[in-house]
Every structure is written in structure tokens, then in C-alpha cells.
Design goal:
This protein is α/β, with parallel strands linked by helices. It is built from 15 helices and 13 strands. Helix 5 links the parallel strand 6 and strand 7. The model has no long low-confidence stretch (mean pLDDT 97). The chain binds alpha-D-psicofuranose and manganese (II) ion (MN).
Length: 424
């Protein structure tokens, strides 16, 4: 299903006067609005192919209907999001959940929706039918060489799919670890994992990046073999220049200072990418910015400052992706909200008075530092985000237009109320 551009234009015309009024206030009160709007237009956040259906917990799943049941339909959904917000112009595939059958056809479809292929993701956290060896006791870390070899071969296979599609990064997230003390020799697990990652790294095309994603716990409950940024950093450093740490916001222990982690990884040139989501308790996979919007702003504040210090392009210097699970909301509405929250935090970070902050920091003026950051955080930048969309031909208010056009109803009519999406 594609949205008629005329419908977007009509919606914008209807809402233009109100938008203009708010924008005028922003233009008067925020400095360098044009610079911010230009950066917002360029910024794109990839949508994972596994986030378009209803997620669930181990207790149950409550599907909302009209879910995409194959890769083509998932791409259609992302195309739909992208036409509404012009900020979701990339798809990240999880293999084997979404194996393209006809590369050319899939590439054509991507072109039609104006989508790029973001990082490809391997899956050695679930056993697949007909798999020779089980990952019950880990994959790349496994004490059994044959299991490690199978997991390495899978990752190399994933790279091949990515190359065929024009992707340029591999994300490795491992569920490897142990659930009970004594189960694992930590050092051996690390060394096995490193050796396996090195074999995968050797198969990486020279223009590719490898992202090593960490997670504090789950599905293992005692130790994870890539548990935190320090461990990911050790692997990435030992692997080489093409390997980086990937930060998923939900993968930290409570109260971790994620903005500091981001700042230091950037400083070391080892921050590769992001998985956005939000959480109250652990890896809750909630809508980005729904629980801790100030934290999201502080993270972007470090990203903007750190990337500028290194002369990096904001839009393609790092990999940006949403990694959330939509258990009770319509997944498409949820994704629109996440992208909006990310854009707002990015715009706020761009509006921070950096020169004044630097002086206040040098003068140890703690009060002033807080004033400067909170001035940016508490300033309403939504008109700038909407203006960026307007200029790009997208909708002033994507969620509202999605609802006005009754898109979910149309998707249910098209795909049925019981269609099921692959993924977690
Ligand atoms: C693991 O929790 C994770 O964050 C990894 O990125 C996986 O690929 C994804 O979620 C699976 O949903
Ligand atoms: Mn993730």
C-alpha cells in the first residue's frame, strides 16, 4: 500500500497555517534554525525488518491484524513510514527471519520505496529447523568447535546476503553466556568468541563495518559473553579497524550513564551504531523517548558534540536504527513515535549553545551548565522537525495522517486480521 502524494499535500495544506504560526515562534527564539532543519532533513533512521509485527512476551502476544507476512510486505510498511516522515529511509534485515529470495526484485522494490539496506543481522540465538548443531550452550563461544564453525559459517552467509543487497555492515549480537556460576570458563568463552569473530571479520568486505552489540543479561541470567561496552570494546579493538561497538539503549544495567559511554567510545573512534528504544526496567524495548526523554537528549548532546569534534557526518557517520518491540501499540504508529522522539532529541542537541557550555564548563559554573542544557531540552523544537518533513514532501504530523487515512484498516483488509510477521 502506498500513500498518494496528493493526500499528504492536502493534509499539509489543511494544517499549514497553524504550523506556520508555531514555526515563526521557533525561528524567533532558536538560533541557526536553517542549519538545524537542513541536518534534520538529511538524518535517517533505519527500521528493522522484525519490528513491523506485534511483539510479545513469553506470556503472550496480542496481534493487531494486517501484519506484513513476508519481506516484500515489510518493505511496503517501511516505505509507508518513509513517505509519512521522510526519515525512515533504510531497512535492516535479520537473517534467517528475512532471507531475500530474488535479490534484484528486492533491490528494485527498495528503490521504489527509496530505501537503503542498513546493517544485516545474524541470528545464532535460536536454533533453525534442519540445523546440525544446537546453540543451547552458546554459538561463537561454544566449547564444541563444530558449533562455533556452524555459527561462523552462518555469519559469513549473512554477509553474502548483505553484499548482494548493497548493505555495508554486519551486526553481531550474541545470546552467548551462562545461566549458572561455574557453567562457563569466562576466559575460554572470551577466547573462543574472539577466534570465531576473527574468522567472520576475515570475510568482511573492505568497505564493510562489523558492529559488536553488547547486552548485560538475557537470555542468559548469570553471565553474558559480550555483556557491556568494555567487553565489546575489547573484541572490537582486537578485531581491527573495521570493528566497532554497537550501543542498544536497552542493554545496560539500571542507571548506567549511557551518554558517557557514547562520548568515550566516540573519542576512541570505536562507536559504530545505535539501537534506539526506551525502558523502565531492563530491555523493555519501548518506544524511544517514551520513558526517559531527557536521557535521549543527553545522549544526542554527546553524539553531536563528539561527532562534530571528529568532523563526522551526523547522518552517515554512525549506524542509526530502532530496535523495539510493539506489544500493545500499532507497530507503525509506535515506529512513527520513535522516529519523532529521536528527531526531537537530535534537534534539541543541535540547538545547545556549545560555546557558552564550554565556557561554563571551564569556569566550573555547574548551575550555568545545567541551565544551558535544560534551556535546549525544554525548548519546543517540534515545529523545526515538522518543517523538515514539510520541505521533504512528508507529512506535518505523520501519526495524525496515518490515522486520518485509516491505514491499519486498509492493511487488515489487504492482508487479513490474522497475518503474522516473522521475528521475536
Ligand atoms: C537483542 O536483545 C537485540 O537487541 C539484538 O539487536 C537482536 O538482533 C534484536 O534485539 C532481536 O530482536
Ligand atoms: Mn539491539
Amino acid at each position: 500500500m502506498q500513500i498518494d502524494k496528493i493526500k499528504i499535500a492536502d493534509f499539509n495544506t489543511k494544517n499549514l497555517a497553524k504550523h506556520q504560526q508555531k514555526l515563526n515562534f521557533s525561528l524567533d527564539t532558536i538560533s541557526n534554525c536553517e542549519g538545524i532543519i537542513a541536518k534534520l532533513i538529511a538524518f535517517q533512521i533505519a527500521i528493522p525488518s522484525w519490528a513491523l509485527g506485534t511483539g510479545g512476551t513469553r506470556f503472550g502476544r496480542f496481534a493487531g491484524g494486517g501484519e506484513p507476512s513476508n519481506l516484500e510486505e515489510k518493505m511496503a510498511d517501511i516505505g509507508l513510514l518513509h513517505s509519512l516522515n521522510d526519515a525512515s529511509g533504510a531497512i535492516s534485515l535479520h537473517i534467517p527471519w528475512d532471507i531475500p529470495e530474488d535479490y534484484d526484485a528486492i533491490k528494485k522494490l527498495a528503490q521504489q520505496y527509496n530505501l537503503k539496506f542498513d546493517a544485516v543481522n545474524s541470528n545464532t540465538f535460536q536454533d533453525q529447523p534442519n540445523q546440525a548443531h544446537s546453540y543451547k550452550f552458546g554459538s561463537l563461544q561454544n566449547v564444541n568447535k563444530a558449533v562455533r564453525q556452524q555459527a561462523v559459517a552462518h555469519n559469513i552467509e549473512v554477509i553474502k546476503h548483505g553484499v548482494a543487497l548493497g548493505s555495508d555492515a554486519l551486526t553481531v549480537w550474541l545470546a552467548d553466556g551462562s545461566s549458572f556460576p561455574g557453567q562457563l570458563n569466562f576466559r575460554q568463552a572470551f577466547e573462543n568468541t574472539l577466534e570465531s569473530l576473527q574468522e567472520i571479520y576475515a570475510a568482511l568486505p573492505s568497505n564493510w563495518k562489523m558492529f559488536v552489540e553488547y547486552k548485560a543479561f538475557e537470555p542468559n541470567f548469570y553471565s553474558n559473553t559480550v555483556a557491556d561496552w568494555g567487553q565489546s570494546y575489547m573484541y572490537a579493538s582486537k578485531l581491527g579497524k573495521q570493528a566497532f561497538t554497537l550501543v542498544d539503549l536497552g542493554h545496560h544495567l539500571p542507571n548506567a550513564n549511557i551518554e558517557q559511554i557514547v562520548s568515550l567510545l566516540l573519542m576512541e573512534g570505536k562507536l559504530g551504531g545505535f539501537h534506539f528504544n526506551d525502558s523502565k526496567y531492563a530491555d523493555d524495548d519501548l518506544t524511544a523517548g517514551s520513558i526517559k526523554p531527557y536521557q535521549l537528549f543527553l545522549i544526542f548532546n554527546e553524539l553531536v558534540e563528539g561527532m562534530d569534534a571528529k568532523g563526522m557526518n551526523h547522518h552517515d557517520g554512525l549506524g542509526w536504527m530502532i530496535d523495539a518491540s510493539h506489544n500493545i501499540k500499532d507497530p507503525l504508529e509506535d515506529l512513527l513515535q520513535s522516529v519523532e522522539a529521536i528527531m526531537i532529541s537530535y534537534a534539541q542537541a543541535l540547538s545547545v549553545d556549545r560555546a557558552a557550555l564550554k565556557i561554563a564548563q571551564q569556569e566550573n559554573d555547574v548551575v550555568k551548565c545545567q541551565e544551558i542544557l535544560q534551556e535546549a531540552f525544554r525548548t519546543d523544537v517540534r515545529p523545526l522537525v515538522a518543517e523538515a518533513r514539510l520541505r521533504a514532501g512528508a507529512a506535518l504530523n505523520p501519526v495524525q495522517l496515518y490515522r486520518d487515512l485509516d491505514i491499519r484498516k486498509a492493511l487488515i483488509q489487504q492482508r487479513g486480521a490474522k497475518s503474522i510477521s516473522t521475528g521475536l
